[in-house]
């Protein structure tokens, strides 16, 4: 198959939702439906097995939240579908943001009883900033929920784009009868059960009388609503969807594996294949022959006694083949992974080949950071993987001073993973941790103990924010650093940052040093792209 046809059959999407809306359940059913897995267990069983296979972070077990995001690949209708899970908890929104930089579309799961919840709103904002096309799945139709029309209104208002229903529910809760497929003009009758795959009864709408007899008022109401929507809602427009200007909406019940096939078909039929991507120097087309990709996530490997880590790389162009020589552009060094894996239905396997859109994992002992561009040789740096200036700071104090080396190593690695931001004050003294969410501190404290045998106390810090620094000239920079030494620090990528004690402090310093630029965002290693605020 040619590069172009390999690329065109890729679909890479993230699944996003507020915790408990049914993201993990839907993921499992998508895998089941595509044939990637054959036995559907209950969610509980799956969660338990997930602990055994991929959940090496104790903290995740303790809290029952998904700290780590994972990647799954499946084949469906001759298409390679790459699904990226995102952590639902708000304290890990940075990780989620980075996952969203690595996908071409998003699948949003909404709980029919709760509508658009807080965390979903945040995720929507990120998708909107990046113009990521969104497919919407309204889940839990087998439960008493909100009226579908009012749900659509809410989704429309929150998304800021029209909703186009592709399926429509007949009844809800105990009376849930099934869904009408508006394009195929038929009704799929609801049957409870987790592992049904193809034995659904489907009745064409031309037999509406039978359906009216069977579902009575619920069917008549659905008919009225469909008529109303056909007049009031815009028709589905592929270009508008791809431009993130409308979202197709599907109804169903993930736990019953119902309405899931429609979503999988939509991913194949409607969702985009990999698009060209911007670098600092040029736009890279997905079917160029030379391999290139970006590290969008780094994660400690399962075995804490080996300090190896997996760098998750989203392929942007070319083809990866086993044994290929690759370079990390930031350092100019060759990447020497101990293994290269693909993520097939929750298992890891040695990767044969990969194309634009695929996610591959390089196991390394270091030398790779979040945001690194990896190529066969060409000097490229992709843009668009941001670090946000932290708003919460704590100073790290060792319980046992003899462990200082382990602490340095641990913090450096956790910093490179992006689990937390680590700042080394220029004047020495305790290392500082910067986070966007409070829970990140707890995870780091826990992991330092579990993986590096280091006990730390976290102490309050006087800092409330950071800005990365660039200057118009070396002279200006020297004047600034001489005058502010006590508030300067280097982060994990050795980028200079100014730590502020209040917003007022920042304003004052900005006024005193007009030729210094203070950036609230930085991209990959050392490069600050955003103009100063
Ligand atoms: P998340 O990843 O978005 O956090 O949600 P998850 O899939 O874990 O689902 C959260 C809960 O919602 C689970 O129940 C799950 O069984 C339930 N659920 C998912 N889809 C549906 C659906 O279509 N209908 C109904 N009625 N429930 C659904 P739980 O009680 O937390 O777990 P469990 O005891 O079922 O394992």
From TrEMBL:
What Pfam families does this protein's entry cite?
EF-G_D2, GTP_EFTU, RF3_C
The name this protein carries in UniProt is Peptide chain release factor 3
Role description: Increases the formation of ribosomal termination complexes and stimulates activities of RF-1 and RF-2. It binds guanine nucleotides and has strong preference for UGA stop codons. It may interact directly with the ribosome. The stimulation of RF-1 and RF-2 is significantly reduced by GTP and GDP, but not by GMP.
GO BP term (any one): regulation of translational termination
Annotated organism of origin = Caldimonas brevitalea
Binding-site positions, GTP: 17-24, 85-89, 139-142
* A cellular component term, taken from the record's GO annotations: cytosol
Q: What is a GO molecular function of this protein?
A: guanosine tetraphosphate binding
Keywords (A to Z) from UniProt: Cytoplasm, GTP-binding, Nucleotide-binding, Protein biosynthesis
Where does it reside?
Cytoplasm
């Amino acid at each position: 198959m040619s590069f172009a046809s390999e690329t065109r059959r890729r679909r890479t999407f993230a699944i996003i939702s507020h915790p408990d809306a049914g993201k993990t359940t839907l993921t499992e059913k998508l895998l089941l439906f595509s044939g990637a897995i054959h036995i559907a267990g209950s969610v509980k069983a799956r969660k338990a097995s997930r602990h055994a296979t991929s959940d090496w972070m104790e903290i995740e077990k303790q809290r029952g939240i998904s700290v780590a995001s994972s990647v799954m690949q499946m084949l469906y209708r001759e298409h390679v579908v790459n699904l990226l899970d995102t952590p639902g908890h708000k304290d890990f929104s940075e990780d989620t943001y980075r996952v969203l930089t690595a996908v071409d579309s998003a699948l949003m799961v909404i709980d029919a009883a709760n509508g658009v919840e807080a965390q979903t709103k945040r995720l929507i904002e990120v998708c909107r900033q990046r113009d990521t096309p969104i497919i919407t799945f309204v889940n839990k139709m087998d439960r008493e929920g909100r009226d579908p029309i009012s749900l659509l209104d809410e989704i429309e208002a929150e998304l800021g784009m029209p909703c186009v229903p592709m399926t429509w529910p007949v009844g809800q809760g105990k009376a849930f009868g099934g869904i009408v497929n508006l394009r195929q003009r038929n009704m799929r009758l609801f049957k409870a059960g987790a592992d049904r795959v193809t034995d659904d009864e489907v009745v064409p709408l031309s037999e509406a009388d039978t359906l009216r007899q069977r579902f009575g008022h619920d069917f008549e109401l659905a008919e009225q609503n469909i008529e109303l929507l056909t007049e009031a809602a815009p028709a589905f427009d592929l270009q508008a969807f791809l431009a993130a200007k409308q979202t197709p909406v599907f109804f169903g019940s993930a736990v019953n594996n119902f309405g899931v096939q429609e979503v999988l078909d939509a991913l194949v039929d409607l969702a985009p294949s990999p698009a060209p991507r911007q670098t600092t120097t040029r736009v890279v087309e997905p079917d160029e022959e030379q391999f290139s990709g970006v590290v969008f996530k780094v994660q400690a490997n399962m075995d804490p006694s080996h300090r190896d880590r997996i760098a998750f790389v989203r392929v942007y162009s070319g083809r990866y083949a086993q044994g290929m020589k690759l370079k990390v552009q930031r350092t100019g060094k060759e990447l020497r992974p101990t293994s290269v894996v693909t993520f097939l239905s929750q298992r890891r396997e040695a990767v044969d080949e990969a194309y634009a859109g695929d996610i591959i994992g390089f196991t390394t002992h270091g030398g790779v950071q979040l945001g690194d561009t990896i190529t066969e040789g060409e000097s490229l740096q992709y843009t668009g993987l941001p670090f946000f200036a932290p708003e919460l700071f704590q100073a790290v104090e060792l319980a046992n001073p003899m462990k200082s080396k382990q602490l340095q190593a641990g913090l450096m690695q956790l910093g490179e993973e992006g689990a937390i931001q680590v700042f080394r004050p220029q004047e020495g003294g305790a290392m500082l941790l910067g986070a966007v969410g409070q829970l990140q501190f707890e995870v780091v404290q826990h992991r330092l103990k579990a993986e590096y045998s280091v006990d730390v106390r976290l102490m309050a810090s006087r800092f409330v924010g950071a800005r990365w620094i660039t200057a118009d000239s070396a002279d200006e920079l020297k004047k600034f650093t001489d005058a502010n030494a006590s508030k300067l620090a280097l982060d994990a990528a050795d980028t200079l940052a100014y730590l502020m004690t209040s917003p007022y402090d920042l304003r004052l310093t900005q006024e005193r040093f007009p030729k210094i630029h203070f950036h609230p965002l930085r991209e990959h290693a050392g490069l600050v792209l955003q103009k100063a605020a």
